[in-house]
Design goal:
The protein is built from 13 helices and two strands, in the order ααβαααβαααααααα. The protein is mostly helical. The chain has a two-stranded antiparallel sheet with strand order 1-2. Pfam families: Lin1244_N. This is Lin1244/Lin1753-like N-terminal domain-containing protein.
């Protein structure tokens, strides 16, 4: 007996900056922590089904019972906000109360690309994804006679949509890091040509998400390297910054240690000078008060004698 097709996913990716995402912070500000927890439960329900969720009373009450202090009215409000924010497709929700999005469907396609099952069509936003065709393309039919046509081998899976490159808005931390780097480059070279900041922002994302570098650390290294005589002439793009980041971080750290050692270093005397100074101090410490007074009297008498001789 053949194994039945599996619709849903076992897990789904959650962005590393989920907690600081503008949509998450908006839900947190209006509904509190229970609103954010509901968001996670809602996304889990979508991916458990596959790539969409029919938002009805049954689904609503199931999720309400999972979050303490949540009410059905509040879940409706949160869903309405997420639709307005673009987390879910507005047209599908308004027409058939289905929760899905282009990003959710792309994630589902990527996770199920090894499954041997037809591509989904129900509530599918990108209609070109449907791999089934009512007609037969005779140009690629192996049984057709005549001259063979050339097939574009670069597109081996025409049913799968081409994934667009991410676009970073003006509030994106990655775009801000890219702009900060270009600003510091311009401080050294006002005539520097403005690059594609979207490409630079994507390199910044890779530096943070893939290379596990802290955003604040990245900004500190950007400022430091553009003040360094050597690195300011070599780090002229976000890609180069990412490539050399480990070396930059180590060199900055070692430079800090060198400066600290210079500040705290004490000047030392030669051994012989230190020894003579110590002996002199020790001799002065050995005299008693009476001996010091007697020595002072002797010096006074000696001065009187020298005065008389001069006269």
């Amino acid at each position: 007996m053949a194994r039945p097709n599996k619709d849903g996913l076992d897990y789904f990716p959650l962005d590393i900056d989920f907690s600081t995402n503008a949509k998450t912070e908006a839900i947190m500000g209006e509904f509190g922590a229970k609103g954010v927890l509901f968001m996670i439960y809602l996304l889990s329900a979508v991916y458990r089904k596959g790539y969409y969720l029919q938002w009805d009373k049954l689904q609503q009450m199931q999720l309400v019972n999972r979050v303490n202090g949540l009410s059905p009215e509040m879940t409706d409000q949160i869903v309405a906000r997420l639709v307005a924010y673009g987390t879910f497709d507005k047209e599908l929700f308004s027409s058939v109360r289905v929760l899905t999005s282009q990003r959710i469907q792309d994630t589902y396609l990527d996770a199920t690309k090894r499954r041997k099952q037809p591509k989904p069509t129900l509530y599918w936003i990108n209609v070109n994804n449907n791999s089934s065709s009512e007609g037969v393309n005779v140009d690629i039919n192996p049984q057709s006679k005549g001259k063979k046509s050339k097939v574009n081998k670069s597109n081996k899976n025409p049913s799968r949509p081409k994934r667009d490159k991410p676009v970073y808005d003006e509030n994106s931390d990655y775009l801000k890091l890219a702009e900060f780097l270009f600003e510091k480059i311009q401080d050294n070279d006002p005539q520097a040509k403005k690059p594609n900041l979207q490409h630079w922002a994507d390199d910044m994302r890779k530096l943070v998400e893939l290379d596990k570098r802290d955003k604040h650390e990245v900004s500190v290294i950007i400022k430091w390297c553009q003040q360094d005589p050597f690195w300011s002439t070599n780090i002229l793009s976000a890609a180069k910054l990412r490539k050399q980041f480990t070396m930059l971080a180590l060199q900055k750290k070692n430079e800090g240690k060198t400066r600290q050692s210079k500040v705290t270093r004490k000047e030392t005397l030669p051994d012989w000078a230190d020894h003579n100074q110590q002996c002199s101090n020790d001799k002065q410490k050995d005299l008693t008060d009476d001996q010091k007074a007697k020595l002072a009297e002797q010096l006074a008498e000696l001065n009187k004698t020298e005065v008389k001789g001069d006269a």
